[in-house]
Amino acid sequence: MPQKPQPKPEEEESEEELDFPEEDVKIRLIVKKGEQAWVAYSPDYPELVARGATEKLARVAWELMLAEHLEKQSAVNVNTPEYWDRVYAEEAQIQKKRLDEERLRLVRETIERRIREGKSQDLEVLDVAGGSGELSRYLTYQFPGIQVTTMDFSPEAIALAIRFLERLKYYTADAEKLDTIPDSSQEVVFCGETVEHLTNDRECIENLRRVTRDGGYVIITTPYKDRNKSPEHMREYDLNTFRDLIKPLGEVVNMDTVGDYSNWFSIVAVVRVRKEESEKI
Question: CB 280: neighbour CB atoms within 10 A?
Fold first, then answer.
């Protein structure tokens, strides 16, 4: 009786992965049934997968795909209250990361400067787009005599902030309009890593000036252009474009860069607000 032909064993599949941490890109070589293909992807953008005949071609294809993706994203502002509600709902499940020491130092020293200038009574500090209130908690314990307020347009963020600090003063407001914040009510305003998310960054600057008292300070930070790409960013700034943006606020006391240029890198500025007599309250 003739024997049935035995199926040929399939060639083993194998994978080899090359990691480029400085670029947040992973390149994977997949060998299947004797044929190989290079696949490029990133955990940050799981929807983008590029293939190429060589490692280099896969990598170039992925970079082009990412550039096109970011260009499309920049036309649509994903920064809605619902979007950030989801972010903060997830954030509530993990340990809160600490604010970086450099920005804390800037805020602390600016408050101390305002106190030395004789504004220790009823000194109010506003944290714009303050999220879950890390800065507000820090300042409340660091300066028990001042009034610190967190403002965010995400109800989930505000709920999380109150959970960590029940006596927190807060506003639910849009960072562009600051429409629930009274005019000339704040001695120090912190606006960290926010303007790059906004549809109208100049409207935000106008309202930061509006809510700050004459002689008060605005501390404002933003990621440096091309160093911290994100689909959440409507635009990014270098030193010149950022200086142009904040010019209407008043006198720039300090402007510098902080961070690791190969990783997270930001522009920070401290501006003293000067108002006309008609603007003063």
Answer: 11
Among the listed ranges 35-44, 121-130, 139-148, which one has the minimum average pLDDT value? Answer: 35-44
Exposed e or buried b per residue across 106-129, where buried means at least 16 C-beta atoms within 10 angstroms of its C-beta = bbeebbeebbeeebeeebbbbbbb
- pLDDT score for 19: 54
pTM metric for this prediction: 0.66
CA–CA distances in Å: residue 135 to residues 88, 143, 202: 16, 12, 24
Amino acid sitting at position 76: V
Q: What DSSP state is assigned to residue 80?
A: -
Query: Does residue 193 contact residue 201 with C-beta atoms inside 8 Å?
Result: no
What pLDDT was estimated at residue 68?
Answer: 76
Tokens of 35: 């044929």
pLDDT over 90 (residue 189)? yes
